[in-house]
Amino acid sequence: MKITIFQLILIFIWSSITGAGSVLDEFQTHRPLIACSVTGLILGDPVKGIILGGTLELIALGWMNIGAAQSPDSALASTISTILVIVGSQSIQKGIAIALPVAAAGQVLTVFARTITVAFQHAANRQAAKANFKAIEWLHFSALFVQALRVSIPTTLVAIFVSPTMVQSMLNALPDVVTGGLTVAGGFIVVVGYAMVMNMMSVKYLMPFFYLGFILGGYLKLSLLAFGGVGLILALVYVQLNPKFSKQMSATPVSNTAVENDLAEDELED
Amino acid sequence: MMSMSSAEEIVSTLTKRDIFQTFVFENFQQASFNYETIHGLAFCVDMIPTIRRVYKTKEDQAEALKRHLTFFNVTPGVCGPIVGVTMALEEGKAQGENIDAGTIQSFKVGLMGPLAGVGDPVMWGTLRPILAALGASLAVKGSWMGPFLFFFAFNAIRLALKWYGLKLGLNRGLALVKDVSGNLLPKLTEGATVLGLFVMGVLVTKWTTINIPLVVSKTQNGGKEVVTTIQTILDELCPGLPALGLTLLMMYLLRKKVNPIILIFALFGVGILGYGLGWLK
């Protein structure tokens, strides 16, 4: 298919939003589930965009910004891979294979952007001495444009210059062992994402709950929502029965249900 | 600590509009993310509606602005209580309470640590992966409900946390510190960890596909040939064992500070090699 000028403008605007979303990490427009779906909608094939988004989301499950560290960039990976899958008529699996190196490239670009914004911080320091509120606000929000352009410029370039036939012939040049291997790897590449999430949460003495989920998940044919319900009940029962929490509770003679009372009590003690 | 009760007594001059504007600014907490002060500039912007309202002279305003341009970093979703408490402190200071710049700074830092300790695992480690996995499970079948569910559920929770966190911080002022060190937060964290780990266990076995059709033996059983592969043996032991082993290996390597992108490419390498040799399908 050919991209119209109007679609190109929409691609530029949407990829700017995902770029800003990528650094903000608030509305989650940069997550594949959202970014691929909307890009697919713009390009006229929303279903393909949603399927690619869902597949890529599973791989990106553990891509998160912890502290000052950056995760692989899901914004750039989502927009570019969707363009190549829909405009370049590639398979979802090949789209995933394209997305991963792009995510690594996006990560490098965001490191540059976050270094550039140090200058914005210094400019704000000077404005603070003059109590110039408007200038400080402007500096803060204009830093978003650096991040927006970081994604929208490469994405728009890909949309303009990469013709479907070019992508086709490039990928056809790949031998079967590579494409077949990528498809096989696509089945278990998610473990890296799982491992990143697990390392965040894992508390040694709570690991039995992980293995319980693993065994039940292997043998029971329940929906994920049902498993979520079971997990929630387990969590509630665990917290209620845990002597660690009830001990603390009896130390202060306050009902645990009324947080308001708790706070009032604390103030009186001071 | 002596000023604790007085912060409760002061009458706030902040208007509804000031508070709402702060809430809006809070949604751009990482707009000027930079390696020097992380959210330093953002926190200063969060405080602008308050500073503009409570300080009258240029000198006081400049002092307050400079005070909040310092290093700040917390999970964006849980910045509300800190911003709220700081607003209460600035208001108290402006009204002549005995609160110095150092006290305000140590409150910010003191709340930053524990809240980031809860915020990162709860927001990024539990809430988002679970909602994203739920949305993705619908999306891979082509359902538009997938992205919708994820977007609206996550943002509803996130916005509620920001708004009520801000209000709680502001209303409770200094007393909030007691709440953080109290019983509620560790309970919440531990409960969320139990839920998160359980769901991760389910995901590892349900959503990982590893097939090892490597033939171990071929036996004749009443004229029928029975082919035993590594996969059939593993499935009899417990479904999903290779996925579990691989996950635990990845956790180990990540803890050893191996870059996740390298691991992803290595697994692609394993996939290509295994497929080429016919060990994986």
Automatic annotation (TrEMBL), chain A:
Keywords: Cell membrane, Membrane, Phosphotransferase system, Sugar transport, Transmembrane, Transmembrane helix, Transport
Record-linked InterPro entries: GatZ_KbaZ_carbometab (IPR050303), PTS_IIC_man (IPR004700)
Localisation: Cell membrane
Domain of life: Bacteria
Main location: membrane
Any single Gene Ontology cellular-component annotation: plasma membrane
BP term (GO), one: phosphoenolpyruvate-dependent sugar phosphotransferase system
Membrane topology type: Multi-pass membrane protein
Matches recorded under PANTHER family: N-ACETYLGALACTOSAMINE PERMEASE II COMPONENT-RELATED, PTS SYSTEM MANNOSE-SPECIFIC EIIC COMPONENT
Record NCBIfam families: EII-Sor, PRK15065.1
Name recorded for this polypeptide: PTS system, sorbose-specific IIC component [Lactobacillus sp. wkB8]
Organism whose genome encodes this protein: Lactiplantibacillus mudanjiangensis
TrEMBL record, chain B:
GO terms, biological process: phosphoenolpyruvate-dependent sugar phosphotransferase system
PROSITE patterns: PTS_EIID
Keywords associated with the record: Cell membrane, Membrane, Phosphotransferase system, Sugar transport, Transmembrane, Transmembrane helix, Transport
Domain of life: Bacteria
Membrane topology: Multi-pass membrane protein
Cellular compartments per GO CC: plasma membrane
Listed InterPro entries: GatZ_KbaZ_carbometab, PTS_IID_man
Ranges annotated as spanning the membrane: 194-216, 237-254, 260-280
Compartments, as annotated in UniProt: Cell membrane
Protein name: EIID sorbose-PTS [Lactobacillus casei BL23]
Organism encoding this protein: Lactiplantibacillus mudanjiangensis
UniProt lineage: Bacteria, Bacillati, Bacillota, Bacilli, Lactobacillales
